[in-house]
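Contributing new records

If you add data, match the layout below exactly. Sequence lines come first and carry their own label; structure lines follow with theirs. Keep one chain per record. Anything else will be rejected by the validation script.
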Amino acid sequence: MSDPITTEVIKSSLIYASEEMGIAVRNAAYSPNIKERLDHSCAIFDRFGRLIAQAEHIPVHLGSLPWGLRETLRALERRGREMDPGDMWVVNDPYISGTHLNDITVIRPIFLRGEGAPPSLVGYAASKAHHTDVGGSVPGSMSADASELMAEGLVIPPMRLMIGDRVNEETVELIRANSRTPEARSGDLKAQIAGNVTGERRVLETIERYGLAIFCAAIERILDESERRMRAALRVFGDRDVWVEDVLEPPGDGPLLHLRARVRTRDGTIDVDFEGTDAQVPFPINAVLGVTLSGVHYVIRAATDPTIPMNEGCFRPVEARAPLGSLLNPRRPAPVAGGNVETAQRICDVMLRAFAQLAPGKMPALSNGTMSNVMCGGETSDGTAWAFYETNGGGMGARPNADGIDGIHTHMTNTLNTPIEAMERYLPIRMTRYEFAPDTGGDGEFRGGNALVRSFELLAGSARLSLLAERHRVAPSGTHGGGDGARGKHTLRPVAGTEETLPAKTTIDLRPGDEIIVQTPGGGGYGGPADRDPAARERDRLNGLAGE
């Protein structure tokens, strides 16, 4: 049995261990996407595969890491395999790991190894990181028009990355051989190995200090406490049924795609059913079930009590499902690259609409609703290959008591914009604009956050650019009388020729001197514009966030 004080100490040590794993990954990473943008997540699981601690990294990994570990263990069981002491496993198959091919998951089984006793499995350390390029038809491995999973890049089933505590070089070489930037791939894999070893070390230190029996008892209390607190938070909503929907924008000008959900609360539980959501499509905005779960869990935590420790206990009062073969639970081999980034944001918007009915006056207006993905790569003038990926911030939705934040990553992304210095040092590009777009937040008593403008020029060599974004046709909506945020737009300013507007989802070739301008959507406003404080309007004007 573990007393309350010891349980609290163990809980805190595990949470910090998962955060420390992330620090190790960041410090050892090669690519700017992980080192600068922090596009990775880390978690610790117990011997039953239950999540016991997850660092506050990327919200889209909230449900996909636990789901991915369970599916990986099931895949190994079907093969008649299991994880052995000294192993480390790697997987990126979205239908197993739970996101998209760029997100490579590395798993370390944690064994207690005592003298004279057989090794005993006590848990798992896992890290998931977005690798900038894993092959496929376009640099960055996130094609806007891929019709099947195999066109998106290398598919890695569960494979051993380490055997007997030594790196399995054949696995590393396989991944390197399928990337346009092999050095960064092997370097980032080493960073994930470092993160998992850090998590393993901290778990074993905790067990050594308190003993395995107390450690296991503490885990049960930790999970039960999170469950109790989540049920208490959900009871506030009473017994309710709400129906909500939102839309996704397919490539081109085809009919909008619908996400529909019924959200039901009953006696401290919540049930989310996406029945009625449109069927999967042959382009990459399908979201595997792990992504769908992440969107649901993120909003539930944000709308209830974010201080509840993130672990298996939080999930117990929550049921979420989507029809097999739908946008939110596709059948293999549907393409899914954009589901992890764009559809995830729309799942979040659907859930926010639901909680706006469950808790009137407490939810914000909709934020920009897209990660505004930019993928670019090619060859420099001396033939060196390069690849680049980033998401871009946009306007945050206005809150019931405050304006939205300008040009920030919102909801399912918790990353940063790549520093201009890093981009210009390592890539053959020059940044030409990085600024807020005035008057793009929805008007209201509290205005939505303004959009971001970010543009660059190709300096030399050749490049292929892919853009993957949303909210170019349907604006982020305001609430309680607030105005909608401005829609996003992409612009090509060629070195020769006429400036043109590009689609939200497209792939084009660039020549030296071509400039790409990305303007992200703004956030929706909250409350009637007539109620806005004149001093706030004047402050926005003086700060260049609103016109004269």
